[in-house]
Specification:
Layout (H helix, E strand, L loop, with lengths): L5 E5 L4 H13 L3 E4 L15 H5 L2 E6 L10 H14 L4 E7 L3 H11 L4 E7 L5 H4 L3 H5 L2 E4 L11 H13 L6 E5 L7 H12 L4 E4 L2 H10 L4 H14 L10 H6 L6 H11 L5
Parallel strand pairs: 1-2, 1-3, 3-4, 4-5, 5-7, 6-8
Helix pairs in contact: 1-7, 3-4, 8-12, 9-10
The chain binds NADP nicotinamide-adenine-dinucleotide phosphate.
Length: 275
Protein backbone atom coordinates (compact mmCIF):
# COMPACT_ATOMS: atom_id res chain seq x y z
CA UNK A 1 0.00 0.00 0.00
CA UNK A 2 1.25 3.42 -0.93
CA UNK A 3 1.71 5.45 2.26
CA UNK A 4 -0.17 8.37 0.69
CA UNK A 5 -3.25 6.24 -0.10
CA UNK A 6 -6.09 7.35 2.15
CA UNK A 7 -8.52 4.71 3.39
CA UNK A 8 -12.16 5.60 4.02
CA UNK A 9 -13.41 3.68 7.07
CA UNK A 10 -17.20 3.73 7.06
CA UNK A 11 -18.51 3.43 10.61
CA UNK A 12 -14.99 4.27 11.79
CA UNK A 13 -16.19 4.86 15.36
CA UNK A 14 -18.21 1.65 15.38
CA UNK A 15 -17.27 -1.78 16.61
CA UNK A 16 -15.05 -3.05 13.81
CA UNK A 17 -14.36 0.35 12.22
CA UNK A 18 -12.80 1.73 15.40
CA UNK A 19 -10.40 -1.20 15.49
CA UNK A 20 -9.51 -0.77 11.82
CA UNK A 21 -8.77 2.91 12.48
CA UNK A 22 -6.55 2.04 15.48
CA UNK A 23 -4.53 -0.32 13.29
CA UNK A 24 -4.16 2.24 10.48
CA UNK A 25 -2.98 4.78 13.08
CA UNK A 26 -0.41 2.32 14.44
CA UNK A 27 0.87 1.76 10.88
CA UNK A 28 1.02 5.52 10.29
CA UNK A 29 -1.35 5.22 7.32
CA UNK A 30 -3.80 7.98 6.38
CA UNK A 31 -7.51 7.38 6.87
CA UNK A 32 -10.82 9.19 6.90
CA UNK A 33 -13.78 8.17 9.02
CA UNK A 34 -17.12 8.06 7.21
CA UNK A 35 -20.16 8.40 9.47
CA UNK A 36 -22.92 10.87 10.22
CA UNK A 37 -20.77 12.60 12.86
CA UNK A 38 -17.50 12.65 10.90
CA UNK A 39 -16.10 15.60 8.98
CA UNK A 40 -17.03 15.47 6.12
CA UNK A 41 -20.16 13.58 7.12
CA UNK A 42 -21.12 10.34 5.40
CA UNK A 43 -24.70 9.12 5.71
CA UNK A 44 -25.97 5.93 4.07
CA UNK A 45 -29.40 7.58 3.99
CA UNK A 46 -28.21 10.71 2.16
CA UNK A 47 -26.34 10.08 -1.09
CA UNK A 48 -25.42 13.75 -1.43
CA UNK A 49 -22.87 13.16 1.36
CA UNK A 50 -21.00 10.38 -0.45
CA UNK A 51 -18.94 12.44 -2.93
CA UNK A 52 -17.14 14.51 -0.29
CA UNK A 53 -16.40 11.40 1.78
CA UNK A 54 -14.93 9.67 -1.31
CA UNK A 55 -12.87 12.62 -2.54
CA UNK A 56 -9.20 11.57 -2.76
CA UNK A 57 -9.86 8.08 -1.37
CA UNK A 58 -7.95 5.04 -2.67
CA UNK A 59 -9.39 2.26 -0.50
CA UNK A 60 -12.48 1.76 1.61
CA UNK A 61 -13.57 -0.45 4.50
CA UNK A 62 -17.33 -0.65 4.07
CA UNK A 63 -19.64 -1.36 7.00
CA UNK A 64 -23.35 -0.84 6.51
CA UNK A 65 -25.61 0.29 9.35
CA UNK A 66 -27.77 -1.09 10.84
CA UNK A 67 -27.33 -4.37 8.96
CA UNK A 68 -26.88 -5.67 5.43
CA UNK A 69 -29.90 -7.89 6.13
CA UNK A 70 -32.23 -4.88 6.11
CA UNK A 71 -34.37 -4.68 2.92
CA UNK A 72 -32.85 -2.27 0.41
CA UNK A 73 -29.37 -2.36 1.93
CA UNK A 74 -27.89 -4.29 -1.00
CA UNK A 75 -29.05 -1.68 -3.53
CA UNK A 76 -27.66 1.10 -1.37
CA UNK A 77 -24.22 -0.46 -1.04
CA UNK A 78 -24.25 -1.29 -4.77
CA UNK A 79 -24.83 2.40 -5.57
CA UNK A 80 -21.98 3.23 -3.20
CA UNK A 81 -19.62 0.73 -4.88
CA UNK A 82 -20.32 2.30 -8.28
CA UNK A 83 -19.78 5.82 -6.96
CA UNK A 84 -16.57 4.74 -5.26
CA UNK A 85 -15.22 3.28 -8.49
CA UNK A 86 -16.06 6.49 -10.37
CA UNK A 87 -14.25 8.44 -7.65
CA UNK A 88 -11.10 6.36 -8.25
CA UNK A 89 -11.27 3.88 -5.36
CA UNK A 90 -9.40 0.71 -6.32
CA UNK A 91 -9.89 -1.50 -3.25
CA UNK A 92 -13.14 -2.26 -1.40
CA UNK A 93 -13.31 -4.42 1.74
CA UNK A 94 -16.89 -5.30 2.68
CA UNK A 95 -18.03 -6.38 6.15
CA UNK A 96 -20.79 -8.93 5.67
CA UNK A 97 -22.88 -11.33 7.76
CA UNK A 98 -23.02 -15.10 7.61
CA UNK A 99 -26.23 -16.87 6.62
CA UNK A 100 -28.03 -13.71 5.50
CA UNK A 101 -29.48 -13.83 1.95
CA UNK A 102 -29.62 -10.02 1.72
CA UNK A 103 -25.97 -9.76 2.70
CA UNK A 104 -25.09 -12.36 0.07
CA UNK A 105 -26.84 -10.21 -2.55
CA UNK A 106 -24.64 -7.28 -1.52
CA UNK A 107 -21.56 -9.52 -1.74
CA UNK A 108 -22.58 -10.60 -5.26
CA UNK A 109 -22.97 -6.96 -6.32
CA UNK A 110 -19.44 -6.24 -5.12
CA UNK A 111 -18.05 -9.29 -6.92
CA UNK A 112 -19.58 -7.97 -10.15
CA UNK A 113 -17.71 -4.65 -9.82
CA UNK A 114 -14.51 -4.06 -11.73
CA UNK A 115 -12.49 -3.48 -8.56
CA UNK A 116 -10.13 -5.30 -6.22
CA UNK A 117 -12.42 -6.59 -3.45
CA UNK A 118 -12.25 -8.64 -0.27
CA UNK A 119 -15.34 -9.83 1.61
CA UNK A 120 -15.36 -10.53 5.35
CA UNK A 121 -18.42 -12.73 5.98
CA UNK A 122 -18.66 -12.83 9.75
CA UNK A 123 -20.47 -14.88 12.35
CA UNK A 124 -22.11 -13.21 15.37
CA UNK A 125 -19.63 -10.87 17.06
CA UNK A 126 -18.39 -11.81 20.55
CA UNK A 127 -18.39 -8.08 21.29
CA UNK A 128 -22.21 -8.03 21.11
CA UNK A 129 -21.92 -9.12 24.76
CA UNK A 130 -19.89 -6.07 25.74
CA UNK A 131 -20.47 -3.29 23.17
CA UNK A 132 -23.94 -3.96 21.89
CA UNK A 133 -27.42 -5.19 22.72
CA UNK A 134 -26.46 -7.82 25.30
CA UNK A 135 -24.45 -5.53 27.58
CA UNK A 136 -27.38 -4.04 29.50
CA UNK A 137 -29.00 -7.43 30.23
CA UNK A 138 -25.62 -8.77 31.42
CA UNK A 139 -25.26 -5.80 33.75
CA UNK A 140 -28.81 -6.50 34.97
CA UNK A 141 -27.68 -10.12 35.60
CA UNK A 142 -30.51 -11.55 33.53
CA UNK A 143 -30.29 -12.25 29.79
CA UNK A 144 -33.68 -13.24 28.37
CA UNK A 145 -33.54 -14.09 24.68
CA UNK A 146 -35.78 -15.75 22.10
CA UNK A 147 -32.95 -17.96 20.85
CA UNK A 148 -33.08 -21.66 20.10
CA UNK A 149 -30.44 -23.79 21.84
CA UNK A 150 -28.22 -23.72 18.75
CA UNK A 151 -24.49 -23.12 18.90
CA UNK A 152 -22.82 -20.12 17.25
CA UNK A 153 -19.05 -19.76 16.64
CA UNK A 154 -18.85 -16.14 17.89
CA UNK A 155 -16.04 -14.22 16.18
CA UNK A 156 -13.75 -11.86 18.06
CA UNK A 157 -13.77 -8.60 16.12
CA UNK A 158 -10.10 -8.06 16.92
CA UNK A 159 -9.68 -10.86 14.36
CA UNK A 160 -12.09 -9.17 11.94
CA UNK A 161 -10.04 -5.95 12.16
CA UNK A 162 -6.79 -7.89 11.67
CA UNK A 163 -8.16 -9.45 8.49
CA UNK A 164 -9.53 -6.10 7.28
CA UNK A 165 -6.11 -4.49 7.73
CA UNK A 166 -4.37 -7.35 5.96
CA UNK A 167 -6.80 -6.99 3.05
CA UNK A 168 -6.31 -3.20 2.92
CA UNK A 169 -2.54 -3.14 3.24
CA UNK A 170 -1.06 -6.44 2.03
CA UNK A 171 -1.12 -8.40 -1.21
CA UNK A 172 -2.76 -11.81 -1.48
CA UNK A 173 -6.33 -10.95 -0.47
CA UNK A 174 -7.68 -9.85 -3.83
CA UNK A 175 -11.07 -11.30 -4.77
CA UNK A 176 -11.19 -13.45 -1.66
CA UNK A 177 -14.26 -14.12 0.47
CA UNK A 178 -13.28 -15.04 4.02
CA UNK A 179 -15.78 -16.70 6.36
CA UNK A 180 -14.70 -15.39 9.74
CA UNK A 181 -15.77 -17.28 12.86
CA UNK A 182 -14.30 -18.17 16.20
CA UNK A 183 -12.71 -21.62 16.65
CA UNK A 184 -15.54 -22.99 18.84
CA UNK A 185 -19.33 -22.90 18.66
CA UNK A 186 -21.24 -22.17 21.89
CA UNK A 187 -24.92 -21.78 22.67
CA UNK A 188 -25.97 -18.44 24.13
CA UNK A 189 -26.50 -20.22 27.43
CA UNK A 190 -22.91 -21.50 27.38
CA UNK A 191 -21.58 -18.09 26.36
CA UNK A 192 -23.40 -16.38 29.23
CA UNK A 193 -22.19 -19.08 31.63
CA UNK A 194 -18.55 -18.42 30.61
CA UNK A 195 -19.01 -14.67 31.08
CA UNK A 196 -20.73 -15.22 34.42
CA UNK A 197 -17.93 -17.46 35.68
CA UNK A 198 -15.01 -15.25 34.59
CA UNK A 199 -16.66 -11.95 35.49
CA UNK A 200 -17.51 -13.37 38.91
CA UNK A 201 -21.15 -12.28 38.68
CA UNK A 202 -24.20 -14.48 38.67
CA UNK A 203 -25.91 -13.90 35.32
CA UNK A 204 -29.04 -15.89 34.53
CA UNK A 205 -29.88 -16.97 30.99
CA UNK A 206 -33.61 -17.31 30.28
CA UNK A 207 -35.03 -18.48 26.94
CA UNK A 208 -38.27 -16.60 26.18
CA UNK A 209 -40.77 -16.53 23.28
CA UNK A 210 -40.28 -13.90 20.55
CA UNK A 211 -43.48 -12.10 21.49
CA UNK A 212 -42.32 -11.63 25.08
CA UNK A 213 -38.99 -10.29 23.81
CA UNK A 214 -40.76 -7.90 21.41
CA UNK A 215 -42.99 -6.59 24.22
CA UNK A 216 -39.97 -6.03 26.46
CA UNK A 217 -38.10 -4.15 23.73
CA UNK A 218 -41.14 -1.96 23.05
CA UNK A 219 -41.41 -1.17 26.71
CA UNK A 220 -37.74 -0.16 26.67
CA UNK A 221 -38.63 2.11 23.70
CA UNK A 222 -36.23 0.39 21.30
CA UNK A 223 -37.10 1.59 17.76
CA UNK A 224 -39.46 -0.79 15.96
CA UNK A 225 -37.09 -1.42 13.02
CA UNK A 226 -34.31 -2.39 15.43
CA UNK A 227 -36.64 -4.81 17.24
CA UNK A 228 -37.58 -6.44 13.94
CA UNK A 229 -33.93 -6.69 12.90
CA UNK A 230 -32.89 -8.39 16.14
CA UNK A 231 -35.86 -10.78 15.95
CA UNK A 232 -35.01 -11.59 12.33
CA UNK A 233 -31.44 -12.41 13.37
CA UNK A 234 -32.66 -14.61 16.25
CA UNK A 235 -35.45 -16.33 14.29
CA UNK A 236 -33.80 -16.77 10.93
CA UNK A 237 -30.04 -16.49 11.10
CA UNK A 238 -29.64 -18.26 14.44
CA UNK A 239 -31.51 -21.37 13.32
CA UNK A 240 -28.42 -23.58 13.24
CA UNK A 241 -27.32 -22.68 9.71
CA UNK A 242 -24.20 -20.96 11.06
CA UNK A 243 -23.08 -23.47 13.66
CA UNK A 244 -20.13 -24.83 11.69
CA UNK A 245 -16.71 -23.33 12.39
CA UNK A 246 -15.04 -21.74 9.34
CA UNK A 247 -11.33 -21.18 8.82
CA UNK A 248 -11.29 -17.71 7.24
CA UNK A 249 -9.05 -16.24 9.93
CA UNK A 250 -6.45 -18.92 9.28
CA UNK A 251 -6.78 -18.55 5.50
CA UNK A 252 -6.26 -14.80 5.70
CA UNK A 253 -3.67 -14.54 8.49
CA UNK A 254 -2.02 -17.96 8.76
CA UNK A 255 -2.92 -18.27 12.45
CA UNK A 256 -5.82 -19.59 14.50
CA UNK A 257 -8.80 -17.42 15.37
CA UNK A 258 -9.02 -16.07 18.93
CA UNK A 259 -11.15 -18.23 21.21
CA UNK A 260 -14.26 -16.90 23.00
CA UNK A 261 -12.47 -17.59 26.30
CA UNK A 262 -9.73 -15.09 25.37
CA UNK A 263 -12.37 -12.46 24.57
CA UNK A 264 -14.10 -13.12 27.91
CA UNK A 265 -10.85 -12.86 29.91
CA UNK A 266 -9.81 -9.64 28.19
CA UNK A 267 -13.24 -8.07 28.49
CA UNK A 268 -13.70 -9.03 32.13
CA UNK A 269 -10.32 -7.37 32.87
CA UNK A 270 -11.55 -4.14 31.24
CA UNK A 271 -14.26 -3.91 33.92
CA UNK A 272 -17.12 -3.36 31.47
CA UNK A 273 -19.16 -6.18 33.07
CA UNK A 274 -18.61 -4.77 36.56
CA UNK A 275 -16.61 -6.38 39.30
N1 LIG B 1 -23.07 -7.38 15.19
C1 LIG B 1 -22.82 -8.57 14.65
O1 LIG B 1 -22.79 -9.60 15.33
C2 LIG B 1 -22.53 -8.66 13.18
C3 LIG B 1 -22.15 -9.89 12.64
C4 LIG B 1 -21.86 -9.98 11.28
C5 LIG B 1 -21.96 -8.83 10.48
N2 LIG B 1 -22.33 -7.65 11.04
C6 LIG B 1 -22.44 -6.47 10.17
O2 LIG B 1 -21.78 -5.39 10.75
C7 LIG B 1 -22.31 -4.17 10.22
C8 LIG B 1 -22.21 -3.12 11.28
O3 LIG B 1 -22.96 -3.49 12.40
P1 LIG B 1 -22.53 -3.10 13.85
O4 LIG B 1 -23.71 -3.41 14.71
O5 LIG B 1 -21.20 -3.71 14.21
O6 LIG B 1 -22.41 -1.55 13.79
P2 LIG B 1 -21.18 -0.58 14.08
O7 LIG B 1 -20.08 -0.85 13.12
O8 LIG B 1 -20.84 -0.58 15.52
O9 LIG B 1 -21.88 0.77 13.59
C9 LIG B 1 -21.97 1.92 14.29
C10 LIG B 1 -21.34 3.03 13.43
O10 LIG B 1 -22.16 3.27 12.29
C11 LIG B 1 -22.29 4.66 12.12
N3 LIG B 1 -23.59 4.90 11.48
C12 LIG B 1 -24.82 4.72 12.01
N4 LIG B 1 -25.76 5.07 11.11
C13 LIG B 1 -25.10 5.48 10.00
C14 LIG B 1 -25.52 5.99 8.74
N5 LIG B 1 -26.82 6.15 8.42
N6 LIG B 1 -24.58 6.31 7.84
C15 LIG B 1 -23.26 6.19 8.11
N7 LIG B 1 -22.80 5.71 9.30
C16 LIG B 1 -23.72 5.37 10.22
C17 LIG B 1 -22.16 5.25 13.52
O11 LIG B 1 -21.58 6.53 13.52
P3 LIG B 1 -22.48 7.86 13.48
O12 LIG B 1 -23.44 7.77 14.62
O13 LIG B 1 -21.48 8.95 13.59
O14 LIG B 1 -23.16 7.86 12.15
C18 LIG B 1 -21.18 4.29 14.19
O15 LIG B 1 -19.85 4.72 14.03
C19 LIG B 1 -23.71 -4.51 9.72
O16 LIG B 1 -23.80 -4.32 8.34
C20 LIG B 1 -23.87 -5.99 10.03
O17 LIG B 1 -24.47 -6.69 8.94
C21 LIG B 1 -22.62 -7.54 12.36
Amino acid sequence: MNSTDTTLVIGGAGKTGRRVVERLQRLGLPYRIGSRSSQPAFDWEDRTTWAAALDGIAKAYVTYYPDLAVPGAAEKVQAFFHQALEAGVDKLVLLSGRGEPEAERAEQMLKECDVDWTILRCSFFSQNFSENFFLDPILAREVALPVRPVAEPFVDIEDVADVAIAALTQPGHSRKLYELTGPRALTFEQAIAEISSVAGREIRYIPIPSEEYRAGMRQAQVPEEMIELVLYLFDTVLDGRNTSVANGVHQALGRQARDFAEYVQRTAMSGVWGR
